Amino acid sequence: MNAAAPVIRHATRVDATAWASLRRGLWPDADETLGELQDALADADAAVFLACADAAVGFAEVRLRHDYVNGTETTPVGFLEGWYVQPDWQGRGLGRALLAAAKAWTRAKGCSELASDSRLEDVTAQAAHRACGFEETERVVYFRLPLDPAG
User: Fold this and answer.
1) Strands 77-85 and 56-65
2) For all residues of the chain together, what is the average pLDDT?
3) What number is the average pLDDT over the span 57-62?
4) Most CB within 10 Å of its CB: which of 60, 77, 129, 134?
5) Are residues 46 and 78 in contact, defined by beta-carbon separation less than 8 angstroms?
6) Is 29 helix (H, G, I), strand (E, B) or coil?
7) Four-residue CA torsion sign, 43, 47, 48, 49
8) 66-106 confidence digits (pLDDT tens)
9) What pLDDT, on a 0 to 100 scale, did the predictor assign at position 113?
């Protein structure tokens, strides 16, 4: 176990490798290149916060969304795109601390709402959202219809 007390800080381009590793913990199929992640860290409409002890152990990825976000009443709205703490570090308040940084950034950008989502089967993520004050607004099932190019 790491001895350093974790701190929450804004990620920069030099953190792209650590962030990429954490993203794979949340999204095992994530395939963004290091360059794409470095560019994302320079986007003024997005921010990434890292929970760091001796190494990065969690992240919160937040973005301004200007399009309609299900369940919200304003635009733009902050959207918590990703929120993850490594399993060995869960239960220590790091998720809440990361969320606090994301909320402060969203407020500073002029938003009055922060939205998020979760897969229907991820009841652990849903419980974490509720425990931090999120309220469920709706449930959606997405559908897809492949189109035959011949018509």
Assistant:
1) antiparallel
2) 94
3) 98
4) 60
5) no
6) coil
7) positive
8) 999 999 999 999 999 999 999 999 999 999 999 999 999 99
9) 97
SS3 149: coil
- Can you read off the two tokens belonging to residue 21? 């590793």
What gap in Å lies between CA 17 and CA 37, rounded to an integer?
A: 8
* Cα 85 from Cα 95, distance rounded (Å): 6
Q: How many residues does the chain have?
A: 151
Residues with Cβ within 8 Å of 64's Cβ and at least 6 positions away in sequence, in order, are 45, 46, 76, 77, 78, 79, 106, 109, 111
pLDDT in tens, 135-144: 999 998 889 9
pLDDT at site 142 = 86
Domains of the chain: 7-131 (3.40.630.30)
Extract the tokens encoding 34.
């290091």
3-state SS, residue 126: helix
Please give, one letter per residue, the 3-state secondary structure of 30-74: CCCCHHHHHHHHCCCCEEEEEEECCCEEEEEEEEEECCCCCCCCC
Nearest of 129, 130, 113, 9 to residue 59 by alpha carbon:
9
For tokens 């425990």, name the residue: 131
